[in-house]
Structures are given as structure tokens and as C-alpha cells.
Amino acid sequence: MDQPAEIRPMKLHTIALGCQMSEADAEEMSAPLASRGFSRAESPDEADAILISTCTVRQHAEDRAISLIGSLKPWKAADPNRVLIVSGCAAERAGDSIRRKFPYVDLVVGAKSIARFPELVREALDARFDALREQRESFAPEAAPTEASPVSAYLTIMRGCNYSCSYCIVPSVRGRELYRPVEDILNEARAKVAAGAKEIMLLGQTVNSYESEHDGGKVGFGDLLRLMDQTPGLERLRFMSPHPYYVDERMLSAMAECRAVCEHLHLPLQSASARVLKLMRRNYTPAAYLDKVRAARSAVPGIVISTDIIVGFPTETEDDFQETLDFLKEVRPAWAYCFKYSPREGTRSASWPDDVSREVKEDRLGRLNRLMDELTSKALNAHIGRTVEVLCEEPGFGRTRQGFNAKWAGVTRPGEAVSLAVTGATKRTLLGEIA
Ligand code: SF4
Fold first, then answer.
1. Which CATH architecture fits 387-434?
2. pTM score > 0.90 for this model?
3. Measured in angstroms, how far is the CA atom of residue 324 from the centroid of ligand 1?
4. Class of domain 148-262
5. Does domain 265-381 have CATH number 3.30.200.20?
6. What tens digit of pLDDT does each residue of 312-342 get?
7. Mutation test of ligand 1: which of 162, 169, 205 has the most ligand atoms closer than 8 Å to its C-beta?
């Protein structure tokens, strides 16, 4: 008598490239596959399906996506029943070229179609797995794996952007802002905490422009923080990335009064030359940005500011750059993500001459990084001799509420909150002992 074929659960390997939104998208898009019985594969070799979530904010992330898709040709050729899905911003911007160049990709889903992803993936998988009838038995939703969330989980509250910064590709690949309903956000937060998350990072391109209707009234970002703060078991709440324009009294008072909201504000500046900011179409002046920082510091004691800076934007002069350095000395962000400008095809600034030479960009980036190293070092050293609360993410490693990395010797479990007596600091990390 024939033995019945072994029913092997299908496995999904997920690769997120680029920004946090891409990581959050990958997590969200894994859900419909998990509900069909796919469990996690740690590597492509053991996977029946691969989902690549792409990012296009920087050319480098898009180039990595293209090279990764190319490198998966042998993986797909080894078993044509395998499924390769490419999603996200690069899929939106370069979807047609990906389909043409890599015909073995089963499904290309652009960032604007993420809401339709469950339907699209169902169509792709139904076609693929009709040939694997016996394995489909294991696709019942109850077979979905219940994997614990990491200590810190992402939660996307909005998609798209209504701004039109001249260097940014996001509005054209993600479209205008769409806000998730409050109830969906709160339910997802409860589910993530129930699965083990202690900290939630709210995500959106301009996360604090969030608005929605709830219980017959309007809910802005500050109101959402207050509602999220009531999530049982949630210890920390963070968000990324706010736009300076929407930092207002309601948001800051919620940050000050909500138990879980961390004392950290990552506020992208990009440049402190009023002329360059205008060309970037950032919609604020350096003076307005400084007002927001002062308001945040006065509303939320101990708040730490961090920022993003672009050097070498078209027409940026040495004086413009010097204004940025001087401004940063005044604002004293604790750290900054600093980038050299590079034109992104499809953006307004890509049609302007990229007239700051590579050498000058590199020189400015080096000087900026040296200044930021000094500011980071001051911010870290100010902790020495103090005791801070750290949420353990891996044994011996975690982050403070203000977002500083911390390391210590000794046994702690991920998810455990510990009091750390800070004894020293490296270039980017606090060192200490469990108090
Ligand atoms: S605010 Fe500007 S930089 Fe940020 S996503 Fe929107 S267009 Fe891009």
C-alpha cells in the first residue's frame, strides 16, 4: 500500500531592506502568509517562499534589492514551485523593470498596493499551490504559527506623505497620507503586547500628522499617544519619524503625561540654512525648528533630541554648511543620521545640477560626523554616575528610555527592565552594572 505523502508545512523567508517602514511592511505582509500555514524559514535554502520588502529612499537600498533579486535566480530555478514576492517602494518605483528583468519573480506588489496584498498573495498562491494539493491541507488559519513578538515591535499607523520635499521619492511611491483607524491600531498594539512586546514603535513617514475619527470625535497624534498609553502591559511607546511642522502643544503634553511614552524625539532637520531648507521644500525655517526643540525641552524634562542631516544638497555653499554646524552646536542633538546628498531619479532635485563635488561632500560629512561624535560623547558621559532604566533586548544589551544603547555584564532576560548604574561609555554605548 502506498504511504501517504508527508505533509510538510510551507516556509517563508522574509528579507526587509532599508528603512523601518520596510521592516514594518515585511512584518505586515508576512501575516497573510502565516495565516495560510507558512512558518518562518531562517534562510532561503529552507524556504518555499521568499518575500523581499524593498526601500527606495536611498539609491543604495534599491541597488541592494535589485542585486538580491538577481542572486535568487538559482534558488527559484532549483524548484519552480517556489514563490518569490517583491514588495515595497522599489517595487512601486521600478515594478515594470523588475518584471521585465527578472521574469521568475511571481508577484511584484508596489507600496501603494499594500492594502491589497492579502488578495494579491491569495491569487498568486492559489495558482501556485493547486499543484500541491496535499500540502494545502496544512493551510488552515488555525495552523498559523504564533511566534512571539520581539521585545520592541513596529506598528504602522499611516502610509504615504502629503509633503513634497524636493529630494524625496516617498510621495511618488507611497502616495498621499492614509491613516489606519484607531481601533485597528489599538487592537494590533494589544496583540503585539500579548505576544511579548514590551515596547512599540509607531511608524509613519510623518507619523505625527496622524488624524482619524474615533468615538464620534477627531483624534490627532497626541490623542493617539494617550489612547495607546492605556494598552495593558505596554511599557514603552516610541514613534518615528515626526515632522517638525506637526510638533504641537497637544503632542508634547501627551508625551509629558503618558507613562509609556519615552523621552526621546527624533526630529529630522536636514539643513540649518534657511535658503537650502527652502530649496528642499521642508516647510520650516531654522528658527521655527529651534522653537519646537525648546518647546519639547520645556514640556518633557530630560527629553533627548536626535536628528537627520543631508550635506551637499545642490547649491549648498560653505557658508550654508557652516550655518548647519553652528546650529547643531546650539541645538545639541544627542546623535544624528548624516548623509551625503545623492539625486534620486523621479524627484524634483534630480533635475538640478548635483553641483557640490564628491570631495566637498565627503569633507563636509567628515566634519559633521566629528561634531556629532563630540555631542554624542557629551550626552553619553553625562550619564556616568547615574542610574538609568534599561529595557533588555538581548542578554547584556538594551536601551534606555531616551534611546541610548547600553551594555552590561550579568544575566538578564530579553524583555526585562533593569536599573543600570552607569560606570562609563564607549563611542555610542553606555556601560554599567545592574544596580
Ligand atoms: S516629509 Fe519629506 S522627506 Fe519625509 S517622507 Fe515626506 S516628502 Fe519625504
1. Beta Barrel (2.40)
2. no
3. 20
4. alpha beta
5. no
6. 999 999 999 999 999 999 999 999 999 999 9
7. 205
